Amino acid sequence: MNSQSSYVNIQKEWDIVGARHVARDLAKSLGFGTVDQARIATAVSELARNIYLYAKNGQVHFEKIESMERKGLRIKAMDSGPGIGDIGEVMQDGFSTSGGLGAGLPGVKRLMDDFVIKSELGEGTTIIANKWVRQ
Ligand SMILES: Nc1ncnc2c1ncn2[C@@H]1O[C@H](COP(=O)(O)OP(=O)(O)OP(=O)(O)O)[C@@H](O)[C@H]1O
Ligand SMILES: [Mg+2]
């Protein structure tokens, strides 16, 4: 990361692949091991795919996070799509409004260390997920 943050626009299906590659490269440059690089890349790919499917377009932002004793990567997936009415419902394994597996969001939560959804019907959705480098 040249500066401390960057982002990828999600508009076309191919942008999902682009976001996945950016995520893996950033994770590698921050010192994550190969397993965590794959976890982060998968999480970003799921979030980008949800933006593409449900909101049509949005962005995935990447930010280096640092505290006294650790560093990591923050992913922020943002869109101005239809929003999510019941967050508890979409976090259940197997819940899907599109005939998907309904594994995306619960999967992202498991793959990352911290996970927060903010969403308002008709306003859009913001999902923030952090991963910390293992010492
Ligand atoms: N950015 C979003 N905007 C609006 N609704 C969303 C968004 N992301 C997820 N959802 C809703 O949450 C549901 C669950 O998402 P999740 O990614 O867990 O499963 P899925 O996309 O349906 O299937 P899978 O990801 O397993 O292929 C979706 O079916 C959709 O209704
Ligand atoms: Mg999904």
Question: Summarize this, please?
Answer:
The protein is α+β, with helices and mostly antiparallel strands and 135 residues long.
Summarize the structure in words.
- With 135 residues, the chain is an alpha+beta fold.
- The chain has four helices and five strands.
- The chain has helices spanning 14-29, 34-55, 87-90, 104-111, and strands at 5-10, 58-66, 71-79, 114-120, 124-132.
- It has a five-stranded antiparallel sheet, with helices on one face.
- Helix 2 (34-55) runs antiparallel to helix 4.
- The protein is globular, with a radius of gyration of 14 Å.
- The structure holds adenosine-5'-triphosphate (ATP) and magnesium ion (MG).
- Residues 46, 50-51, 54-55, 79, 81-82, 84, 90, 95-98, 100-105, 125 line the site of adenosine-5'-triphosphate (ATP).
Layout of helices and strands:
Layout: E1 5-10, H1 14-29, H2 34-55, E2 58-66, E3 71-79, H3 87-90, H4 104-111, E4 114-120, E5 124-132
Antiparallel strand pairs: 1-2, 2-3, 3-5, 4-5
Helix pairs in contact: 1-2, 2-4
Bound molecules: adenosine-5'-triphosphate and magnesium ion.
